[in-house]
Amino acid sequence: MRFASASRAGTERSFLSGTGGRGMNESEFFKKIEEAGGRGYLAGGAVRDMVMGRAAHDSDYLVCGMLPDEFTKLFPEARQAGKSFPVFLLEIGGAVCEVAFARVERKTGRGYTGFEARCGKDITVEQDLVRRDTTINSMAMDGEGRIIDPYGGRADIERKIIRATSAAHFAEDPVRALRAARQAAQFGFEIESATLALMGRCAEELRAEPAERKFAELEKALSSPAPSRFFRALLAAGLLSQEFPQIAALIGKSQPPAYHPEGDAFDHTMIVTDTAAASGASLEAVFSALLHDIGKGTTPEDMLPHHYRHEERGLALLPEITAALKIPKRWRKCAEFVIREHMRASLVKTPSKIRDLVRALENGPISRRDFEIVIAADNGGKIPEWLARYDEYLAVLKSASSAPIPERLRGAQIGEYIRGREAHALKKFITDGGPRKRGGEDK
Questions:
Q1: Are strands 115-119 and 2-4 parallel, antiparallel or unpaired?
Q2: What pLDDT was estimated at residue 14?
Q3: CB 248: neighbour CB atoms within 10 A?
Q4: 51, 69, 406, 438: most buried by Cβ count inside 10 Å?
Q5: How far apart are CA 124 and CA 128, in angstroms?
Q6: Residues 130 and 140: beta-carbon distance below 8 Å
Q7: Could you give the CA distance from residue 288 to residue 331 in angstroms, rounded to a whole number?
Q8: DSSP conformation letters of 206-219
Q9: Mean of the pLDDT values across residues 109-130?
Q10: Residues 6+ apart with CB under 8 A from 29
Q11: What pTM was estimated for this model as a whole?
């Protein structure tokens, strides 16, 4: 059975509701498949996570020795998802899972849609697994709990290596280059040299891939413990300047060593991004950390190692970056706030400017906690006094703004009056109370 131009687009699981009863567990699913003459397997990421001792987020299943029409007769409650090749949604063990049929694929065109896929009773589990991206994702488990590992996935997990399952199949979907880099970040593994070379060969077709697919890999990379591994892997594969040119432009941009002993703007950005991720920041905040110094990539050479007005240059780059990757609006707004305010946050001293930042953060798109994480990551763990005392200062401002407003004031005068009164109240509070210590040190 053939399916032309097979699509790898993600499937919606939400439209399939539960069966309403106790449901079918995994053992019952495998048994029904076997009694009907087929073979069922748990496959892919769930098996990888099991081998690694990690909790699996999804359970995807593979069926061999059976055709789709036989499957739907056996499981009439299953719903087909995707049109190009048969993937069904079925409740197993209380969760809606994907069930795919073993298939082989033949490249017929460009990109991830340029395939002809064939499924049939004769296709083995090994034939299906070989077309997958990396060895750690090319394992399966049968109903008896036996691991089918024909391509060395377990050994690569032990060695902490990302390796393409098949050189012939890897480049058939160019987004696999991003996926291998993302897996390196996700698991803290190294990508072996031959796979880095395969990733580089994906460059031409990768340019034309949909932004949504690229963003999906970026999103997962930023949710990993060390997102820098994703970008460094792309750099090693020769793909960073193509896929993330504004990030690549930071390489070699020197910084004042007194403030940035870690090196150039790229190294600094990688450290800040990893620190934000490790500190539990939201995804939009980690993205903001990634872009906080993006303007340094366009600093004129004769200005180095200084980066005057890099916030303005960063804001000018932001629309191009977010449009190219279809970045969510909330992410864009958070990054805009961080790019604009991250320098001012550490430099403001006067009560009026502190007042403005406190109010900006109160009404801004990023949470106070996330902003604090990014600022601390950017400043070696330190945060400014106003941010450490944000809650106190905000309470002072709100109290000051609650007083009656003179009736003679109109329009913009009202806002200026409130701002002045809040700044005066904050100045008095700071003067009367003196600097507050936090953790034994002035912040």
A1: antiparallel
A2: 34
A3: 18
A4: 51
A5: 7
A6: no
A7: 7
A8: HTTS-HHHHHHHHH
A9: 78
A10: 40, 61, 90, 92
A11: 0.86
The residue count of the chain comes to: 443
| DSSP 8-class letter at 379 | T
Distance CA(210)–CA(113), nearest Å, equals 11
Tell me the CA distances in angstroms from 360 to 309, 332, 345, 357, 366, one per residue in order.
20, 16, 11, 5, 10
Residues 256-312 pLDDT 10s: 888 888 889 999 999 999 999 999 999 999 999 999 999 999 999 999 999 999 999
Q: What pLDDT score does 415 carry?
A: 83
Structure tokens at 148: 């089918």
Distance in angstroms between the alpha carbons of the first and the last residue of the chain:
68
User: What is the token pair recorded at 386?
Assistant: 């106003």
pLDDT tens across 138-177, in order? 999 999 999 999 999 999 999 999 999 999 899 889 999 9
Burial of 387 (0-12, 13-18, 19+ CB in 10 A): buried
Q: Tell me the Ramachandran region of residue 72: left when phi exceeds 0, alpha when psi lies from -120 to 50, beta otherwise.
A: alpha
Find the helix or strand (DSSP H, E) in which 434 lies.
Answer: none
Compute the distance between CA of residue 156 and CA of residue 146 in angstroms, rounded to an integer: 18
Q: What percent of the chain has pLDDT over 70?
A: 89
Are 58 and 45 contacting, i.e. CB atoms less than 8 angstroms apart?
yes
Alpha-carbon distance of 276 to 284, in angstroms, equals 11
The amino acid present at 379, given as its one-letter code, is: N
Q: Pick from 128, 148, 238, 150: which is nearest to 193 by CA?
A: 238
Contact 429, 393 (CB under 8 A): yes
Give the 3-state secondary structure of residue 391: helix
**Dist. CA 311–CA 384, nearest whole Å:** 19
Q: Token pair of 294, please?
A: 């993006």
